[in-house]
Amino acid sequence: MNMAAGSKPVLLSIVELGGYPDFANLYQKAGYDVVKTDSVRKAVKLIRKHTPAVIVAEFNFQSDFRDRTSSLETVFSSLQGVSETRVIVFYEKEFRHQYERLLNQFNPFDSLAFPIDETRLEQALKRALAINP
Q1: What number of H helices and E strands is found in the chain?
Q2: Is residue 72 a contact partner of residue 89, using CB atoms and an 8 Å limit?
Q3: Dihedral (Cα; 14, 2, 88, 81), 10-degree rounding
Q4: Residues 102 and 78: beta-carbon distance below 8 Å
Q5: Alpha-carbon distance 86 to 102, whole Å?
Q6: Which residues contact 57 (CB under 8 A, 6 or more apart)?
Q7: Sign of dihedral through CA atoms 97, 99, 102, 103?
Q8: pLDDT tens sequence across 102-118
Q9: What is the domain partition of the chain in residue ranges?
């Protein structure tokens, strides 16, 4: 299990753009120790350090990338073959088509469209904890 020193599973929250509520209290209430970062570059280092049970991240479509849709692909790539981390992705409905391209390559644990339904998020967190206690 991916545990912090306090024997709770670690949830890595990657908030690059934000503009939505801080769900840290919800994450803690669901039973996680929360580690936050504001960049994928920092997140990759934190993944190695903490091996989180869950990562919650935004899909931010970046049209200037030639071979990728977003920096979220870097997060998924850093997890391949290393851990059983569950990834929950927040995405904008207007970018669903681009998000589908990411889904063709990677398999997030859950995807939630903005505005985020806190009940659905809490259910996803509890499911992730039940699968990976």
Answers
A1: 5, 5
A2: yes
A3: 100
A4: no
A5: 16
A6: 13, 14, 16, 43, 72, 75, 87, 88, 89, 90
A7: negative
A8: 899 899 999 999 999 99
A9: 10-131
**pLDDT, tens only, 8-44:** 999 999 999 989 999 999 999 999 999 999 999 999 9
SS3 83: coil
* Segments in 1-117 forming alpha helices (H): 24-29, 40-50, 72-79, 96-103
130 closest CA partner among 5, 7, 22, 9: 9
Domain 10-131 superfamily per CATH: Response regulator (3.40.50.2300)
Bridge partners (DSSP) of residue 114 are none
pTM of the model: 0.90
